[in-house]
Amino acid sequence: MVIEQLISPTVPTLLITDTGSHALLLMEENNVSQLPVVQDDKYMALVRESDVLDWDKPESPLSMASFLTYHPAVFASGHPFEAMRVANQQNLSVLPVVDNENTYLGCITRDDLLKYITENSGVDSPGGIIVIELAPRDYSLSEIARICESEEVIITSAQVASNKLTGKIEVTLKTNRSDLQGLGASFERHNYIVKQIYGEHSQDDDLRGRYDLLMNYINM
């Protein structure tokens, strides 16, 4: 999938002849915090709600504003991950999409990106999550996958993040299995630190837990 496929048909555009007040009204009606300014099909700038609110002439046309120098955008042929990176760094509710000639093609909304993440990261599929920690020099996705395969667990998505405090990395694995206790034990045998496991215990674990509770009650 490319960024162009995520363009929303509902995000309006502004003209440089529109007033700041009109821009605020459109933002409120569409529940966004930014709107693009487009002139002759070319992307000019992204107007932020905060800039208009701080402007002392909101009834004037946007062409008179000094804040039309902000113009974040992504190329239509790029990957959605690039759009997520820019939207996150700039804290954007909408992100303009352009071609190589700066022709405005539309906007991607934050909701569209969230939907893409949900549908393409395995988050909405059944299965548990396990988080392991290791030194950067020890990271090997192929080795991690091999350990999962040895426990008959399939990785549906993987996220890697650096911990600036410890200097280590955390690998979050979304899997196709809910019971990950065996996988956690296998990672520990291979000297990985298992930080969290999110999933259901196996039926045997549940029966064992109930048996232990019963025995404790009998011995009271």
Layout of SSEs?
Elements: H1 20-30, E1 34-39, E2 42-48, H2 49-54, E3 74-75, H3 80-90, E4 94-98, E5 104-109, H4 110-120, E6 129-134, H5 141-150, E7 155-162, E8 169-175, H6 181-189, E9 193-198, H7 203-218
Parallel strand pairs: 3-4
Antiparallel strand pairs: 1-2, 4-5, 6-8, 6-9, 7-8
Give the distance, in angstroms, between the N- and C-terminal Cα atoms.
Answer: 62 Å
Radius of gyration: 25 Å
Question: Using DSSP, what is the number of strands?
Answer: 9
| Secondary structural class | alpha+beta
Query: How much strand content do the residues show?
Result: 15-25%
Helix content: 25-40%
Explain what the structure shows.
Helix content is 34%, strand content 24%. The strands form three sheets. The chain has a four-stranded antiparallel sheet with strand order 7-8-6-9, covered by helices on one side. It contains seven helices and nine strands; from the N terminus they run H-E-E-H-E-H-E-E-H-E-H-E-E-H-E-H. It starts with 19 loop residues before the first helix and ends with a helix. A hairpin with a 2-residue loop joins strand 1 (34-39) and strand 2. The chain has helices at 20-30, 49-54, 80-90, 110-120, 141-150, 181-189, 203-218, and strands spanning 34-39, 42-48, 74-75, 94-98, 104-109, 129-134, 155-162, 169-175, 193-198. The chain is elongated and about 70 Å long. It has two domains: 3-118, CBS-domain, CATH 3.10.580; 129-205, 2-Layer Sandwich (VC0802-like), CATH 3.30.2130.10.
